[in-house]
């Protein structure tokens, strides 16, 4: 199974399966002399970790990360720094329960990856989906914690803005609320509603989808490599590559199709700091595949969890019709834990493009230019 690596200059390779002994990644291309503690990575993993509320899977994984290589503690300062060599991060799987899957060993879960993996590879790792399990996304979050340290002044955040058909009220958006409820929701009123809504969905043996918005502040203008490594193209690929994601939009996204030119184009004026001010951000901070210096804004749609207690029609790997009920421990709304994963993928794409930008143009241009005499 090839293509387990992501990124160009900041590149990580993830490894491991849901029910194997461990998962993790090797981050290659991280610049040297960046302060890096286990706590920096653990803090992010703790936000993605399962079993933290009744609204996520009850699998109890501490997701304790170990840094196996690529760091050195400087004697003079006592600081642990990256060395510029591969950083291997290891997370043990401690709460596998393969027996949960023995009843459905030969059956495919509709909506999950069992059928396509089996058709392609002839291997059916029924234990939690093997490599298709979202356990793999812990590796992305771990790599993302390192990526966050690479672009100076970068702040990457995300929030759940819709569950099923229910959207938040953007007028109530408060970033401080995101850490105060189990949904990473910036609207406290809608977060309260999501509690009873998701309880009902869960008790009915069902699941529901969600929309997540990711935002990066402090992105310098100039990141992105036209034509075939556009920042928006790479970001869309990164977010679409997260398990269960079925749609991505940047800035106004699909709503841009409904606008007229004068409403969509973000008008510009000069600010007092010598940089342009954009009067709106329909572009989501990216023009021509290159960051404009505005916040990068993207959204992604996550489908409802396919493993549900409601009986479904399926086939088995021997080509026979059958029915399936998926027991075991599953997230009733996988969009919740996708929030820190979206942040990680955005941070990784930006770190990668920051390093590529530096490699090609160094410090960049001295815009604004002096007009000809
Ligand atoms: C954070 C997270 C948790 C997930 N947990 C589950 C789960 O408990 N049960 C399940 O069937 N799918 C879960 N998924 C989705 C599957 O991993 C995904 O649907 C599967 O790999 C098939 O890939 P696709 O949906 O991208 O086509 C989860 C996804 C994410 C992002």
What brief labels describe this structure?
single chain, 373 residues, alpha+beta, five-stranded antiparallel sheet, 7 helices, 18 strands, 23% helix, 21% strand, binds flavin mononucleotide
Summarize the structure.
This protein is of the alpha+beta class and 373 residues long. The chain is built from seven helices and 18 strands.
Q: What do you see in this structure?
A:
By secondary structure, the chain is α+β, with helices and mostly antiparallel strands. Helix content is 23%, strand content 21%. The chain contains seven helices and 18 strands. It is globular and about 80 Å long. The N and C termini lie far apart (61 Å). The mean pLDDT is 96. The structure holds flavin mononucleotide. Flavin mononucleotide is lined by residues 57, 112-113, 129, 132-134, 137, 242-244, 303, 305-307, 330-331, 334, 337-338, 341. Flavin mononucleotide binds at residues 57, 112-113, 129, 132-134, 137, 242-244, 303, 305-307, 330-331, 334, 337-338, 341.
Q: What distance lies between the first and last C-alpha atoms, to the nearest angstrom?
A: 61 Å
Shape: globular
Strand order of the largest sheet: 1-2-3-7-4
Poorly predicted tracts of residues: none
Name the helicity range: 10-25%
Q: Average pLDDT across residues?
A: 96
Q: Which ions and ligands are bound to the chains? A: flavin mononucleotide
Assembly annotation: single chain
Order of helices and strands: EEEHEEEEHHEEHEHEHEEEEEEEH
The class by helix and strand makeup works out as alpha+beta
By DSSP, the count of extended strands is 18
Strand content: 15-25%
Tally of separate helices: 7
Biggest sheet statistics: 5 strands, antiparallel
Q: How large, in whole angstroms, is the Cα Rg? A: 22 Å
């Amino acid at each position: 199974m090839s293509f387990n690596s992501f990124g160009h200059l900041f590149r990580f390779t993830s490894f491991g399966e849901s029910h194997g002994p461990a998962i993790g990644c090797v981050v290659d291309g991280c610049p040297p002399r960046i302060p890096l503690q286990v706590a920096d990575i653990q803090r992010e993993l703790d936000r993605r970790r399962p079993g933290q509320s009744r609204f996520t899977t009850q699998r109890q994984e501490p997701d304790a990360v170990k840094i196996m290589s690529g760091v050195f503690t400087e004697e003079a300062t006592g600081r642990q720094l990256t060395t510029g060599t591969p950083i291997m991060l290891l997370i043990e799987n401690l709460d596998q329960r393969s027996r949960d899957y023995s009843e459905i060993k030969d059956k495919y879960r509709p909506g999950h990856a069992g059928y396509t993996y089996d058709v392609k590879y002839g291997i059916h790792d029924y234990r939690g989906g093997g490599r298709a399990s979202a356990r793999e996304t812990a590796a992305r979050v771990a790599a993302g914690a390192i990526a966050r340290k690479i672009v100076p002044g970068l702040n990457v955040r995300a929030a759940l803005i819709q569950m099923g058909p229910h959207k938040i009220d953007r007028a109530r958006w408060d970033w401080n609320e995101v850490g105060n409820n189990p949904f990473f929701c910036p609207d406290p009123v809608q977060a309260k509603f999501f509690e009873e809504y998701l309880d009902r969905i869960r008790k009915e043996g069902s699941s529901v989808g969600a929309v997540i918005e990711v935002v990066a502040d402090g992105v310098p203008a100039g990141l992105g490599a036209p034509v075939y490594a556009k920042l928006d193209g790479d970001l869309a690929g990164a977010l679409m590559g997260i398990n269960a994601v079925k749609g991505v939009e940047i800035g106004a996204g699909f709503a841009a199709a409904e606008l007229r030119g004068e409403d969509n184009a973000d008008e510009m004026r000069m600010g007092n700091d010598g940089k342009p001010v954009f009067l709106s951000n329909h572009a989501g901070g990216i023009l021509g595949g290159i960051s404009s210096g505005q916040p990068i804004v993207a959204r992604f749609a996550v489908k409802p969890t396919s493993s549900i207690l409601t009986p479904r029609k399926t086939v088995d790997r021997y080509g026979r019709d059958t029915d399936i009920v998926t027991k075991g421990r599953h997230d009733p709304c996988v969009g919740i834990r996708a929030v820190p994963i979206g942040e990680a993928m955005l941070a990784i794409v930006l770190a990668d493009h920051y390093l590529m930008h530096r490699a090609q143009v160094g410090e960049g241009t001295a815009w604004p230019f002096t007009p000809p005499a």
